[in-house]
Amino acid sequence: MPEQLRIGVIGASWYSDLRHLPALKSHPRAQTVAICDIDRDRAEEMAGKYDILLVSSDYREVIDKGNLDALLVVTPDDTHHAITMDALDAGLHVLCEKPLAHNAQQAREMYDKAETMGVKHMTFFTFRWPPLYRYLKELIDEGYVGRCFDCHICLFTGGGRSGQYSWRFDRKHGNGVLSEYGAHMIDLARWLVGDVAKVNAHLHMFLDRPGADGGVLDPTNDSAMLTIEFVNGTQGVMQLSALAYIGTHDGEQRITLHGESGTLEARHTFTSAEIRGARDGEEELRLLPIPDRVLVGVDEANPYHVISQFWGDYLFIDCILEDRPILPNFFDGLKAQEVIDAAKESYQRGCWVLLSS
């Protein structure tokens, strides 16, 4: 293994600047040597900020000339497949933003190719890493709720309230909140409860939005509701919205799990997090403080910062250098994409859709 990984980043968006580029720069054994964006000026700006030498508006140049070990794909959904497949052909380890692809067929090809090439691969499902979710997973695995009967998950933000164009709401490039938020919540549901057996979905676009450059939009959805049955028999409901007015929180996520032995409720915003629970014989839900061992190094006023500090890109880099398995990987991305595709089919056909085993 090299002493230091040479990494390229495709996509110089605000999110790369917020999450990926700072993490890469702070890791002692990673060097970001190339960056690409179709907006060359934006790529130049990020290159100057993070001391990156190779700048391009063509991702193929980064792959061909960067002398890379690994590539980060931080671009719109419909571009993930082509960039990742070319990177895999070059033998690179790949971290790809969620959702893994634009559809399940593409995701399957990406996963199969990565496995064939024998490289490390990660789907960037950030909700696995903040302390609230890691402790919630521990409680479930320890049997706090026992056999799970019902799972309710919601994620509300106000990111779509302006009604402006966004590629996320453009069917050519994204799958709306079903993909933007749903990919996260579907992965979280699989991680906490288990695989999904069938889906019944309703998707809606409440706001009339312009298309790119003022053209006509082929809309997807800014609100989604899914009814889910898990393979283990658990029933689930998932609600997603980009239109919620929730003040200064930016976003709010809630999970409720009812089971044979008890109930767990988790609430998470970008500035606060808490878990409450009750087991048989207890009269009301009580606060379950997150243990200090889970909070090591975490700024409780900004729990999401842990993604940039210790998890996410750090986990990707360390697993490559130490030759350890990575979770979540492209298989997890594929399983989430299968549920997204099934939800779209369900809405189009107006019926339940079964997922293949």
Structure description:
With 357 residues, this protein is α/β, with parallel strands linked by helices. 32% of the residues lie in helices and 25% in strands. A 9-stranded mixed sheet has the order 14-13-12-11-7-10-9-8-15. Strands 3-2-1-4-5-6 form a 6-stranded parallel sheet, sandwiched between helices. A hairpin with a 4-residue loop joins strand 9 (223-230) and strand 10 (235-241). The longest helix is centred in the last third of the chain and has 20 residues, at 330-349. The protein is globular.
Q: Reading side by side through the largest sheet, how are the strands ordered? A: 14-13-12-11-7-10-9-8-15
| H/E series | EHEHEHEHEHEHEHHEEEEEEEHHHE
Give the C-alpha Rg: 20 Å
Which whole number gives the mean pLDDT?
94
User: What is the helical fraction, as a range of percent?
Assistant: 25-40%
Per DSSP E runs of 2 or more residues, the count of β-strands stands at 15
- Beta-strand percentage? 25-35%
Structure annotation, total helices: 11
- Main sheet: strands, sense, barrel: 9 strands, mixed
Strand-pairing-aware structural class = alpha/beta
Shape category: globular
Spans of at least 5 consecutive residues whose pLDDT stays below 50 are none
Distance between the termini: 37 Å
